[in-house]
Structures are given as structure tokens and as C-alpha cells.
Amino acid sequence: MMMLYLHLFSDTERASSLFCLMSINGIPLSTILTRAAGPVEFFLILGGYGLYAVYKSGTDRHRFSRIAKCFLTYWFTLLCFVPLACWLTDDPDYPGSLKTAFLSISGFETVWYREAWFLLPYMMVSALYPFLMRVLDSLGSIATLIVSFVLYSFTVVLTQRDYIYIGQDVPYIMTFVRMVQFIFPFYLGAFLCKEHVLDKVREMDFFRNKRLVLMSLVALIAIRSCFTTYFFIAPAYAFLCIILLSSVNIRGCVGALLLHIGRYSLLMWMVHAWIYKYLFPDFIYSFRFPIIIFIVLCVVSYAVSRILHLIIPYRILNR
């Protein structure tokens, strides 16, 4: 849901054409708040946390089936939506050249669905996670975080300052650079699990005061929204948000709803941009009010995801 919000309103020009409750220096509030949405960092940290727990359990029968499930979902959504894009749009990338097809299907450069750029680099990290966790246990948490942060900083400099050319002609290099970049936030999650950070903070008096925690969370979101800088702030922001949210027990209908939607998060990631950006943007943005647009996209993406979940042959991965 965080990703859906980010993608919907990150374009200032598009957001300015909608109903605007408030703007700062000509930037709509809906766009400013997208700065506080960092779905990639949240996903990487939570992924590192979960995979470290799996690693310490000593058994992982689903290491490669997890990867296969992600690619199966991605390929099936391409199979469903690329023909629609060929029919409903004039974009020359649909179907494009054989090179476009290869890069899109392999994930090296997701021309057909740009929002899946994250898929292949993360799958590479996921495939290497036992090795990465052994390094963490061998070097220790602090040394591992320092080394991975240095690598993270180096890749950020490379990609942001054009010291090397990383573009369409070298998507393989870009994939490797992103994989290296993902390791630092991935290790942040593993650190949370290894050092039992979340258990420890829940015992602190500050985190027992839910009002203070919620106020701190709102303040953190507000502070993050003031900065346009992304790379060096995003991992720290996601790390702190996860710590704060872990001490807030979301129960009742809201908790149940979020848990239910979470089961379809992968599919919603794979379909939402087809709906709001590639195929039906006029329909989605016709609702004018950002909150209504967001709700409509969530509902439509969820409905499409439920249908696809029934169709995609996940059972073949259990054989």
C-alpha cells in the first residue's frame, strides 16, 4: 500500500492537477508525503529480519521456491497485461524488440513493467542469503553493518554522480550494483533479528507509552517529508519506523484487514501500475481527490490480485 501511494502521487505535475488541500512551495501535500514512503527499504529490512530467523532455524525448504514464486507471479502478470498494452496503447515498447522482451522477461531491465526493477536484484540477494548470514555471524553485527554501509555508499555515489555510466546499454551492471546496494538495508533487518532489538525496545518505558510512540512516528514521518534526499536517509528512516511500529499492536478489524491484504502484496505490486499508469490512468485519476484515488487503486488492485491468485498455478511449486 505504501508503494501504491508513492507511485500515484510522486509526479508533482500529475498531483497538481488533482484536488489539493495544501501545497508548500507549489508542491502538493500528497506529493510531499510520498517522501515518507520507502517501500523498498521497508521490504529489504523486513526481508533480512525474516531470512535471518529462517537461517537460524537451520532448515529452509523453500529457499528456491520463494524465488520461483516471485518470478512465476511476474511472468504471469506480463502474460496477462502485455497483450492488453499492445492493444490499448501506442507505446512502441509493447511488444518492442526481441532485446526488450529478453530484458523484461529476465528482469535485467523491466521495460514492460518498470515498477518491477527491484525484482531481480532482490532475488539475487535472497538466493545468497545463507552466505550473507554466515558473514554476519562471522564478522559480527557492527563490523558487517559498517562494511555493507561503505559498499552501499559507494554504489550510491556511482549511480548518482555518473562516475560510471549505468544505463540502458549495461543493465547487467545496474542489476549487480543494485544487488550490492540492497545488502546494507537487508543486513539492518538481520541485525534487528540477531540482536533481538525489537524485544529489547518493547521492554523500555518509552516504548510502553503508546501515545509517545505514535507521536514519535508522526514526527518522524513529518521530518522525513521535509527532505528530498533519498538514499542515505531512507534506510535509517525505515529502520526507525519499523522499531516504532513493532511496539504498536494493531489489532481488531484494522489488524485483520492489513494481514489479509498482506497475503496479496506481491500480486498488488505486480498489477497496480498496469491499472493506474499503463492502461487506465484516466479512470483512476478521474476521482480527483487523492484519498479517493488511493482507495480506488487499492480496491481494484486487490480485486485483480484475488482473481490472478486463483489462476496462477502456484501448486506446481509444491511438487
How would the blueprint of this fold be written?
Elements: H1 2-9, H2 12-16, E1 23-24, E2 27-28, H3 29-32, H4 39-57, H5 63-88, H6 98-106, H7 119-127, H8 129-139, H9 141-161, H10 171-194, H11 197-202, H12 205-208, H13 210-225, H14 234-246, H15 252-262, H16 265-279, H17 281-285, H18 290-311
Antiparallel strand pairs: 1-2
Helix pairs in contact: 1-16, 1-18, 4-10, 4-14, 5-7, 5-16, 7-10, 8-9, 9-10, 13-14, 16-18
The gross shape turns out to be globular
Q: Element order, helices and strands?
A: HHEEHHHHHHHHHHHHHHHH
- Label the structural class: mainly alpha
Helix content estimate: over 70%
Structure commentary:
Helices cover 71% and strands 1% of the residues. It is mainly alpha-helical and 319 residues long. Strand 1 (23-24) and strand 2 form a beta hairpin. The radius of gyration is 20 Å and the shape is globular. The model has no long low-confidence stretch (mean pLDDT 87).
